[in-house]
Amino acid sequence: MTTRTVPTGLDADWAQQVRELARERNAVILAHNYQLPEIQDIADYVGDSLGLSRIAAETDADEVIFCGVHFMAETAKILSPDRRVFIPDANAGCSLADTIDADQLRAWKAEHPDAVVVSYVNTTAEVKALTDVCCTSSNAVDVVNSIDPDQEILFLPDQFLGAHVRRRTGRENIHVWAGECHVHADISPTNLVDTVTANPGAELYVHPECGCTTSALWMAESGELPQENTHILSTGGMLEAARKSTSEKVLVATEIGMLHQLRKANPATEFMPVNPKAACPYMQMITAEKLLACLRNQTDEIFVDEKIAAAARGAVERMVAIGNPGGGE
Ligand code: SF4
To answer: Which of 76, 170, 218, 283 is the most exposed place for a label (fewest CB within 10 A)?
Structure first.
């Protein structure tokens, strides 16, 4: 593990302090792929939301420090109810998860009482508790295909992932919630075409939540983008592809924190963002200073009502039973 930078306002030995406190508390530090580089470098594990939640469920540590956004730490708590789970700043939300709350979902379900509810993992525990089966960007198509073709589906909260699933499954009976992540929505088809045109021969990794995904698929199939070089991948899928890549250059359409892991996974390839401004402000709320404070002061702890946690866990477990969950965002 290496720490390359000393964040402003911290002592040079901040990383050592974090490690010592984590050891004293018997805490495991998990960091999402979109975290600031210094947080990724100090963590015990770096990964995608579901992968990290599974590590939280299996760890021997007494405490889990989840460096990511709130719904991710909540999912870790849902899968690991007997362990104390902390997030260095409970205000680190998610604009996508915030597009639908439990009351809105109840009202939507009341309009379609026979529909099966499929929720992407970027949702709150309360929304998961009202969900029949969760999905990730890796398995959304498989999850929808596992449902009776005549059965109406409510798909939420991401409209781009929903459009991707509707197109791949060819189903007309999917109602898609009009939610979006402002970070991914900012990666537009124009960004994509301009960057691809300026970098002929480069491979292109696109996250299915991006505003450009459906256009990217359409453009790849119609020949406007090089089909063989265009890959729609979850964050876990991007890492796997990066490790194997022999390309000189890869263009990446997702949150820019992902580039740190991709560059570490394959230093021989140049990884370039499609939109260098696509940074998640919520992910960046988790700073080294707050991580230190979290370990020192035991803040902020995540609590999920037991009944809600049990119902939400059921929706996650039904997804895992279908297979290939990958890791979510
Ligand atoms: S990048 Fe978007 S979907 Fe991901 S945590 Fe940030 S706001 Fe949520």
So the answer is: 170
